[in-house]
Structures are given as structure tokens and as C-alpha cells.
């Protein structure tokens, strides 16, 4: 196995010195990490009552409710719509679920990544479409795959500072229709033509036209700073941490199997139906497809060929969807007669080298948020991590469980430890449920909150990686029953 991985690393394009250095020094300490025996995670045991994370002189901020329209594979039922249509549907679903008066909402924030140019502030357009007052401010944030996380924590900041009592935060992404631009040369010529005042000036500009001006600029899930796609980064990361193709396929099968079980048992209660104009009502996620290891093994590498291990089966798929959450100051929620689901507690944002450690955000963010909250890994009852790729999740597990990595890359004396699988993404994750870039953060928080209520736990830990080498983690505390 060592020789195969060594050969793979030597032949990967742009293999980083970091990856090689990690491989050489850390391989002897690596141990196999298999999910095959834990495809169906056991419910978490009832946890003993622990201390609350309330802090003196700081407002308690709660999640009253959170919903999402079904997450669908791009190119399916949502393909004729626009992003604000999806965001509006999520807002209407939240209003229907909570019956919150629209005029009580002080502010609306949505996250998105690939913006529709006609609705660049999609939060505002969706809010107006959902019937919110034109006096209710709304803005849109972007932070790659943690855009909804940023929307939520911005709302937390507004409430904590006393600026607001009630905030709606959410996110949206429509990968079925993304902006495709003219080439820069074509754009420049069109802009110059618009400014030309005489026929001679127009003819002079047109004479400079060349056929290659018509080549479109297609969007790509790639790093601007490195020009490397996230899939390539995931493949290199998996190789550096000796995560095998079988490990990745087993983890992906676990995600789909648990998601199917949760869907069949009605545990995905955050999903609200959406009547698609001109089509049937969509009621559930359509990307959950448990397969078999034999079928998954037949797929060819998607990014690094022929030696890569990342395939379509162990990667999250392009997804359309939207989510929305009602966040309030605790005293406001109680005064309005609501029973909150969870407290939003400490959170952190981190950033690393986008070339070598693009997807290691959870590894860096987890120990920091635990320290801020005064907790340890054993205190956490429900882990909800974003699954960009199986290899990304398993590489983070190994990094988190490595004293060597903690000492050499994180400036820490000891490792934080990897999450136990029996507490990890028990109702599926982004690999199976889908990953609309701007909307996933709200899904993660609501999955943690709903799992804590169902399983009797007290603390949840949400974490995610994002493009640019960034990451986020947050502690969610169950609201007392």
C-alpha cells in the first residue's frame, strides 16, 4: 500500500511539498479508518445534564425554528426558476411554520455564492417577494460554502449588540443556472461601443472584432489564487493522509444510508414542501441514493486521472436549494410565546493556506470553538460537519486525531481528537442530502438542534470547510424541554 501511495503522490500534478512532507513523516502513525461496521450509527445515549453556556451580561440568542425547501440535484425540478424564487419559498415556509408576524422581523440576511446578476442582493428580492415590509432591511453575504453560517453569525451579532431582537438568516444556491460571461475582450468592446458617439467610432471598434472574442467564460469551482479545483485539492488531501478509495466509498455509502433512514423515518423535519410553478409539489430531497460498494468501485476518478480516488460517488453533487432560520433574543422569543429549539453559542472562523490545506477548516476550527466554550470533544453529543467529499471528512478525522499534525501545523501540544462516528452526521450529510453552497450552514445547525431534541443531548458542534482555505465552527446548545 505504501508503495502505491508513494507512486500516486509522485505522479499527482502539482503535488505540494506539504503533502509530501506530511506523507513521509506521518504515514507510519496512520491507522486504517473504516466505516463499514458503522453504516447505521446507533442513537446517542441520553446524556447527563451539563452546565449551560450562558454568559453574564450577554443576551441569550436562540433558534426558534429553521426550514429548508427540498435540496434537489441541479437540472431537475428547480431548473427553470431563479435564486430568489427558492429563497422566497424558504422564507414563506418559515413564516408558515412559525406564524411570526412579518413586521416583527428586524433584519433579513441570506448567504449565496454564485450570484445571479439581476438579483445581486437576493435577500432583499426574496424578502419583498415573500411579502415582508419594504421597511425591513436585508442584505446578502458570501463566504463560499459557509455563506449561510456567516448569515447566521451576522444575525447573532446584530442581536447580541442590541441592534435587533428578531433576525431571519438563510441561504440559497441555484446551480441549474449560473452566469456565463462574454470574454473580457468582448465585454470591453461592447462597453466601448455603448460609449461611441459617431458611426466612424463604432466602425473602428467593430473592425477590431475577432471570432475568439465569442469564447465564453464559464464559472468553475476553482480557487482564484491557485487555479486548482476543489476536487483536485480533495484528491491531494486524501493522498497526503493515506485515505483509500475504499475508505471514501464506505463513508459515502454511510452518508446515503443514514440519510435514507432519516428520510424514511420522518426525521428530516426541517424540510418544507415547495409547489414549483407549473410543476408538482416537491416534498423531499432527491439526491439520496444508497448504492453498493461494488457499483461505486466501477466509477472512474473524477479529477486526477488515472490515480485519483475522488469520484462522483464520494463527492457532494451540484445542488439547488434554500434555507431560512428564525433567530431571536431569548426574552423576545419567550414574550411572543415561542419555545425555542436551541441556543446559538460560541463560534469561530478560521483560515489556512488555500493550496495545501483548503479543506481542513474543521480541524482548525473545532479545538478553538471548544476552548472558547470551555468544552471538550467528550462533551459534544451531536456533530454535524459539512461533507464536501468523503476524502475531506476522513482527512480531517486523521488530522484531528494526530498529535504530530497539532504540533507541527496548529501550534498545539496535543490533538483535539476525532469525532466518534456514532455521534457524527447521524441523519446523513452533504454527500447525500445535497450541498447548495449558500444554504448548507443553516441545514447543519438545524440538524444539530433537531438531533439534540430527538436524542436527548445538550451540545452540538457544527463545522464546515470553505473555498479560500476558510472554515467555521459553532456550538449549539439544546433548549431545556
SSE pattern? HHEEHEHEHEHHHHEEHEHEHEHHHHEE
**Structural class per helix/strand content?**
alpha+beta
What is the alpha-carbon Rg in Å?
23 Å
Oligomer: single chain
Strands, total number: 12
Mean pLDDT: 91
Shape: globular
Largest sheet: 10 strands, mixed
Strand content: 15-25%
**Helical percentage:** 25-40%
Topology (SSEs and partners):
Blueprint lengths: L1 H10 L5 H10 L34 E8 L3 E2 L9 H16 L8 E5 L10 H8 L8 E4 L5 H14 L5 E8 L10 H12 L3 H8 L23 H11 L4 H20 L9 E2 L5 E2 L10 H5 L21 E11 H6 L6 E10 L9 H13 L8 E4 L4 H11 L2 H7 L20 H4 L6 H16 L3 E8 L3 E9 L3
Parallel strand pairs: 3-4, 3-5, 10-11
Antiparallel strand pairs: 1-8, 1-9, 2-8, 5-8, 6-7, 9-12, 11-12
Please provide a written account of the structure:
This protein is α+β, with helices and mostly antiparallel strands and 481 residues long. It has 16 helices and 12 strands. It is globular, with a radius of gyration of 23 Å.
What are the key terms here?
single chain; 10-stranded mixed sheet; two-stranded antiparallel sheet; 12 strands; 481 residues; alpha+beta; disordered N terminus
Amino acid at each position: 500500500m505504501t508503495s502505491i501511495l508513494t507512486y500516486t503522490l509522485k505522479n499527482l500534478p502539482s503535488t505540494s511539498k506539504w503533502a509530501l512532507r506530511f506523507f513521509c513523516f506521518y504515514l507510519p502513525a496512520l491507522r486504517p479508518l473504516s466505516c463499514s461496521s458503522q453504516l447505521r450509527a446507533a442513537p446517542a445515549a441520553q446524556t447527563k445534564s451539563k452546565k449551560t453556556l450562558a454568559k453574564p451580561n450577554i443576551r441569550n440568542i436562540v433558534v426558534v425554528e429553521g426550514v429548508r425547501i427540498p435540496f434537489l440535484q441541479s437540472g431537475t425540478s428547480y431548473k427553470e426558476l431563479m435564486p430568489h424564487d427558492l429563497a422566497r419559498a424558504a422564507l414563506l415556509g418559515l413564516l408558515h411554520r412559525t406564524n411570526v408576524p412579518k413586521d416583527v422581523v428586524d433584519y433579513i440576511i441570506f448567504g449565496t455564492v454564485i450570484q445571479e446578476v439581476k438579483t445581486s442582493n437576493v435577500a432583499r428580492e426574496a424578502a419583498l417577494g415573500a411579502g415582508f415590509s419594504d421597511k425591513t432591511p436585508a442584505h446578502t453575504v458570501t463566504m463560499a460554502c459557509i455563506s449561510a453560517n456567516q448569515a447566521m453569525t451576522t444575525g447573532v451579532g446584530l442581536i447580541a449588540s442590541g441592534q435587533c431582537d428578531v433576525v431571519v438568516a438563510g441561504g440559497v444556491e441555484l446551480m441549474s443556472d449560473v452566469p456565463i460571461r462574454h470574454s473580457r475582450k468582448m465585454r470591453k468592446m461592447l462597453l466601448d461601443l455603448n460609449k461611441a458617439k459617431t458611426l466612424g467610432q463604432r466602425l473602428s471598434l467593430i473592425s477590431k472584432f475577432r471570432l475568439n472574442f465569442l469564447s465564453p467564460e464559464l464559472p468553475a469551482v476553482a480557487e482564484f489564487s491557485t487555479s486548482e479545483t476543489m476536487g483536485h485539492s480533495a484528491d491531494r488531501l486524501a493522498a497526503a493522509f493515506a485515505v483509500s478509495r475504499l475508505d471514501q466509498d464506505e463513508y459515502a455509502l454511510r452518508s446515503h444510508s443514514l440519510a435514507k433512514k432519516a428520510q424514511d423515518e420522518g426525521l428530516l423535519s426541517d424540510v418544507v414542501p415547495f409547489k414549483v410553478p407549473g410543476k408538482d409539489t416537491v416534498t423531499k430531497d432527491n439526491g439520496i441514493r444508497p448504492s453498493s460498494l461494488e457499483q461505486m468501485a466501477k466509477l472512474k476518478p473524477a479529477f486526477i486521472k488515472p490515480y485519483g480516488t475522488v469520484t462522483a460517488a464520494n463527492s457532494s453533487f451540484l445542488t439547488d436549494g434554500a434555507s431560512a432560520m428564525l433567530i431571536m433574543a431569548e426574552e423576545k422569543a419567550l414574550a411572543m410565546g415561542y419555545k425555542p429549539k436551541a441556543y446559538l453559542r460560541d463560534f469561530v472562523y478560521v483560515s489556512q493556506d488555500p493550496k495545501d490545506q483548503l479543506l481542513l477548516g474543521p480541524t482548525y476550527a473545532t479545538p478553538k470553538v471548544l476552548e472558547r466554550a470551555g468544552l471538550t470533544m467528550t462533551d459534544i453529543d451531536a456533530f454535524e460537519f459539512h461533507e464536501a467529499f468523503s476524502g475531506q471528512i476522513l482527512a480531517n478525522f486523521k488530522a484531528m486525531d494526530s498529535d504530530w499534525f497539532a504540533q507541527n501545523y496548529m501550534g498545539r501540544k496535543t490533538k483535539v481528537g476525532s469525532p466518534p462516528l456514532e455521534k457524527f452526521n447521524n441523519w446523513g450529510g452533504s454527500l447525500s442530502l445535497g450541498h447548495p453552497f449558500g444554504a448548507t450552514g443553516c441545514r447543519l445547525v438545524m440538524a444539530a438542534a433537531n438531533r439534540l431534541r430527538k436524542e436527548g443531548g445538550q451540545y452540538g458542534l457544527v463545522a464546515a470547510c470553505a473555498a479560500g482555505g476558510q472554515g467555521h465552527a459553532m456550538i449549539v446548545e439544546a433548549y431545556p424541554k
